[in-house]
Design goal:
With 315 residues, this protein is of the alpha/beta class. It folds into two domains: 3-146 and 300-313, 3-Layer(aba) Sandwich (Rossmann fold), CATH 3.40.50.1370; 150-296, Rossmann fold (3-Layer(aba) Sandwich), CATH 3.40.50. It has twelve helices and twelve strands. It has a five-stranded parallel beta sheet, with helices on both faces. Strands 10-9-8-11-12 form a five-stranded parallel beta sheet. A two-stranded parallel ribbon has the order 4-5. The longest helix is centred in the last third of the chain and has 21 residues, at 293-313. The relative contact order is 0.16. The structure holds phosphoric acid mono(formamide)ester. Residues 47-50, 142, 150, 272-274 line the site of phosphoric acid mono(formamide)ester (CP).
């Protein structure tokens, strides 16, 4: 695996989930793979789970992790090509990336969507430069349009907790005060479409995701109807595609609460975190025994470790 970006990069999903089970059961069994090897984790944006779970996954594999906080620890980096660098950015990605690549064996990159230039974001302009210029395998740690380590952990959590062969999984939009990227819902949709689940996306009018990620999923504009019989409810906010990156609805009736959960099949509740309580989900639901947000976050170590393990095995 030269890069981890889309669900296709992981290959056969059943095999990947079986491998995730093994990694979770015996996390230190592959320590030899990372000996004398280094992963550099480059963060252009804030993170709690991705930063810590990636470091823990690396340590489990015997890899040395180095974290670089761009704009904090390093020079401010210019990401656009062909610009006159007369502003506050001291170094261009074009030099920084090969330098980073020369210090390590694997690279992970968090580079959120800017949400102002759809073309720049949906071309994955920053992540693709890392792939093109680093000479090393690159993992998206949530780039502009995808968050594959999160979606892999989400699918693994569903696999662990499902009680029917083909569960109904509903991803519902929920309100948020600020504009958020589409990366998490894009990847969740992509991975659910590839998995053996009955997948429904519930959203208000105007929040349609890019068709390449929606695929054949059923889109439902009536949230209560979508929730009927759900085995898993995955809540997430995302901003609109048109006008790009804008908040066009803050309808609090979409907050996931007891009313929505009552029509499900005693569904488990999932969210990638961080979550705004009583905006996205009520305290009652997130604090209930059916909430899986903590085991879901814990599985971020497992998904990251499977990806790094695969990359190391191919070296
Ligand atoms: N879910 C997730 O990626 O969390 P962080 O932004 O804290 O890494």
């Amino acid at each position: 695996m030269k890069s981890f970006f889309h669900v296709q990069d992981i290959g056969d999903l059943s095999k990947a989930l079986e491998e995730a089970k093994q990694v979770k059961a015996t996390p230190y069994a592959w320590q030899h793979l990372g000996k004398n090897k280094t992963i550099i984790l480059v963060f252009f944006n804030s993170s709690l789970r991705t930063r810590l779970s990636s470091q823990k996954a690396a340590l489990n594999l015997g890899l040395d992790p180095i974290v670089l906080n761009v704009n904090g620890d390093s020079w401010k980096l210019e990401t656009r090509m062909g610009v006159v660098m007369d502003g506050d950015k001291s170094e261009h990605l074009r030099e920084a990336i090969p330098v980073i690549g020369s210090y390590c064996d694997l690279i992970g990159v968090r580079s959120f969507a800017g949400l102002t230039d759809k073309e720049f974001d949906y071309n994955e302009t920053i992540l693709k430069q890392f792939i093109d210029y680093s000479g090393k395998p690159v993992i998206s740690l949530e780039s502009a349009t995808v968050h594959p380590c999160q979606a892999f952990a989400d699918l693994f959590t569903i696999e662990e907790y499902k009680t029917v062969k083909r569960p109904k999984v509903v991803m519902t939009w929920a309100p948020h005060p600020r504009a958020l990227p589409q990366a998490v819902p894009n990847s969740f949709a992509e991975w659910m479409n590839a998995a053996d689940v009955d997948f429904v996306i519930a959203q208000p009018e105007g929040y349609e995701l890019d068709p390449q990620f929606v695929g054949n999923a059923r889109v439902e504009y009536d949230q209560m109807k979508a929730m009927e019989g759900a085995d898993f409810v995955y809540a997430k906010n995302w901003s609109a595609m048109n006008p790009y990156g804008q908040v066009i609805n803050k309808d609090m009736s979409w907050t996931v609460g007891a009313r929505q959960m009552a029509v499900t099949n005693n569904a488990y509740f999932l969210h990638c975190l961080p979550v705004r309580r009583n905006m996205i989900v009520t305290d009652e639901v997130i604090d209930s025994p059916r909430s899986l947000v903590i085991p879901e976050a814990a599985n971020r170590v497992v998904s990251a470790q499977v990806v790094m393990k695969r990359m190391l095995e191919e070296m």
